[in-house]
Amino acid sequence: MTFTFVESDPTETDPLQGELALLEHAISTGPVAQLWEAPLSLVIPRSYLRQPGIEEARAQFAAQGCPVWLRMSGGGLVPQGPGILNVSLAYAVPRGVATWMEPVYLHLCEVIAQGLREVGVETHWQAVEGSFCDGRFNLAWGPGDSARKIAGTAQYWRRAPSAVQTPDGQRHLVLAHAILLVDADPVEINARANAFEAAIHSGRHYDPAKVVSVHEASGIDDATGLTETVKTSIRNAIARSTAPGQ
After folding, report:
1. What secondary structure does DSSP assign to 208-241, as a single string?
2. DSSP label at 2?
3. Residue 212 falls within a domain, yes or no?
4. How many domains does the chain have?
5. 17, 65, 2, 48: which is closest to 199 by C-alpha?
6. CA angle at 150 for the pair 42 and 207, rounded to the nearest 5°
7. What percent of the chain has pLDDT over 90?
8. How confident is the model at residue 12 (pLDDT cuts 50, 70, 90)?
9. pLDDT of 41-58, one tens digit each?
10. Taking Cα atoms as reference points, which of 180, 200, 58 lies closest to residue 108?
11. Confidence (pLDDT) at 231
């Protein structure tokens, strides 16, 4: 099955609620996709709630105009704001994470890579040590140890409800999500992320030299309209693709 595109709710600022809504769409309509942008903020996985002083830090950052939201997927802290494009895909697969985790990641990486190729940026998936929310299925630009992260990915899994469950009870829903640095300033977003990590005394620190924007990687001088161009290219790549497990 191909993807149906769902527009984001411009009044919804909490990404957790948006993720829940996308999963509900997947239950009722099949594979769905959403390309969206968020206001300046930080987003953390629920595992951060175990960190001492987390609520005080969240309140402090919110008071400074940078709310810190929770998300359902794992991983680490990610910045949001101008120049960052989110790609969210939600659909059902026949079995759970042990079987489908890698195909889901590879599909997400491939549709974004196809879109970036159309603007002259070649990427591949790999870990980039020192980048925020590092993982094996980052999209990276550049060779080997010199590669810099251009997109980060994450997943959230849950068992499908009984109304759409298969006889073997193994059907699952997956939310595959990526953030893509289109025209964001690596220094600014990492400074914001590092300030929050310092506020909660996590010991984590991110290196702005380990990430790159599409603007920088493409070598273009004028980034006017770049986000819309990239969004259209990725949307077209998703539209041509088939959701894994369908």
Report:
1. GGGB--HHHHHT-S--TTHHHHHHHHHHHHHHHS
2. P
3. yes
4. 1
5. 48
6. 65
7. 88
8. confident
9. 999 999 999 999 999 999
10. 180
11. 98
DSSP category for residue 143: S
- pTM for the whole thing? 0.95
Q: Report how far Cα 169 is from the mean position of its chain's Cα atoms.
A: 28
Q: What is the CATH number of the domain that holds 111?
A: 3.30.930.10
Is there a contact between 29 and 4 (Cβ–Cβ < 8 Å)? yes
Q: Annotate 66-88 with DSSP letters as a single string.
A: --EEEESS-S--EEESTTEEEEE
Determine, yes or no, domain membership for 246: no
C-alpha distances in Å from residue 43, one per residue of 1, 33, 60, 133, 221: 31, 20, 15, 11, 30
Domain membership of residue 145 as a residue range: 4-240
Phi and psi at residue 142, in whole multiples of 5°? 105, 165
Residue 37 and residue 207: Cα distance in Å, rounded?
23
How many residues does this entry show for the chain? Answer: 246
Q: Is 245 inside a domain boundary? A: no
- Name the nearest CA neighbour of 90 among 49, 29, 133: 29
Residue 17 forms part of a structural domain: yes
**pLDDT above 80 for 210:** yes
